[in-house]
Structure prediction request, 309 residues.
Amino acid sequence: MGLMRSFFLWGSRSCTLREFLPRYGFMRKAVSRFMPGEDIENALNAAETLRDSRISTIVTHLGENLLDKHEAETVAHHYLEVLERIQKRRLDCHISLKLTQLGLDFSRDICVEHLSNIIERANAVGNVVWIDMESSPYVDVTLAVYRQMRSKFENVGVCVQSYLYRTAKDIDGLLPYFPSIRLVKGTYAEPHTVAFDRKRDVDDNFFTLSLKLLDAARNNTMRVGIATHDMPLLKRVFHNASQQGFSRDSFEVQMLYGIKREQQTALAKQGFKVRVLISYGSFWFPWYMRRLAERPANVLFVLKNLFSK
Ligand SMILES: Cc1cc2nc3c(=O)[nH]c(=O)nc-3n(C[C@H](O)[C@H](O)[C@H](O)COP(=O)(O)OP(=O)(O)OC[C@H]3O[C@@H](n4cnc5c(N)ncnc54)[C@H](O)[C@@H]3O)c2cc1C
Prediction:
């Protein structure tokens, strides 16, 4: 793992940095490149703008590893309200959340109860809930909770990560449930014992898994989200998908707000289904450190904002 990447991933877990860095204006300015604002209204306004370019969206309220029962409850209520706001604005905008935001770290039962309520409400208003995948110790429980939810509801998807050796097997275990799956490379610092270290291996696995998912989704209602900004890799996937007879709208290309904006618009124009994940909220520090780890060149934006007035 590169030194810079390790540094930022360490930073994402540092309580001291999390405490004082977000107070600085230059940090807030730098993060605005990836986040339209801290408030849900900022996120939904951005979703409306993207809609004009035929791009659908997902919103996520930043936060993870909550340890307080009341905080988890507040997050759950917040998501219920977000579903109403999306419906009022008639947006094609899903929601995405982390199980540790709903209390998984202190009570699986409480987490499942909140999650069920959110998915049930989303179902009632015709919306979809995506469950993010967190670091490797959470994979088993996340997949178990997903299977539990999928047995009751259709409108729920889960994320899987191509950097983990186990993911092909995990997908096999999910397929009997006709799952909706978002495939990503993975964003956490993982040991060699569980994850590929070399980018090339992560990319090759991503490619293989994306074709596996497309194949499984043939002739059923499974949703497949190919979530990456890696254009050469995406082209490889598109090429093989088209050779195997998949149309451009048989899967979604999912990307993050603010990354590869021009390519997002271009793909939508070419007839691909594009969905952009928009993050908001005040707890953005660990998430932003992970964005810096993905592309240390982003640090230049932080420095630019530090030295500009
Ligand atoms: C919709 C969506 C949902 C996600 N959900 C999860 C999740 O639940 N769990 C999880 O572990 N991970 C999640 N991720 C993050 C993912 O794991 C990767 O860390 C992230 O997408 C970067 O990897 P990449 O596939 O773009 O490939 P990379 O090889 O990292 O990047 C390819 C190219 O994309 C551009 N790029 C990538 N990242 C950035 C950046 N931060 N800033 C500027 N340019 C960049 C660069 O040009 C880079 O060369 C999600 C990503 C997306 C798009």
In short: The first strand starts at residue 56 and ends at 61.
